[in-house]
Amino acid sequence: DSPASLVAACDIAIVLVVDAAQVDDVLTGPGGALTALDPARILVAAWEGKSSSIPKSLPNNNFDNADAPR
């Protein structure tokens, strides 16, 4: 199983990881969640620390984020 298979099976998927490196891996690594993401699905990713490069890599600015400090 992979993050992509989870997203493909859900209308809403929530990813909680430790840092930006982990969110990059889960979303864009092999079998990454973004490969199964389409406009009908919602993906929420949360991590602590520095920002990920993911928002810049999404086409058509199909991304929104919110700062959620501790």
Oligomeric organization of the protein chains = single chain
Question: What's the story with the biggest beta sheet?
Answer: 2 strands, parallel
What string gives the helices and strands in order? HEHEH
Query: Pairing-aware structural class of the strands and helices?
Result: alpha+beta
Residue fraction in strands: 5-15%
Query: What's the rounded overall pLDDT mean?
Result: 79
Separate helix tally: 3
- In what order do the strands lie side by side in the largest sheet? 1-2
Distance between the termini: 31 Å
Query: What is the general shape?
Result: globular
Structural descriptors:
70 residues, alpha+beta, two-stranded parallel sheet, 27% helix
Summarize this entry quickly:
This protein has 70 residues and is of the alpha+beta class. The chain contains three helices and two strands.
What report would you give on this structure?
By secondary structure, this protein is α+β, with helices and mostly antiparallel strands. It is 27% helix and 14% strand. It has three helices and two strands. Strands 1-2 form a two-stranded parallel ribbon. The longest helix is centred in the middle third of the chain and has 9 residues, at 20-28. The model has no long low-confidence stretch (mean pLDDT 79).
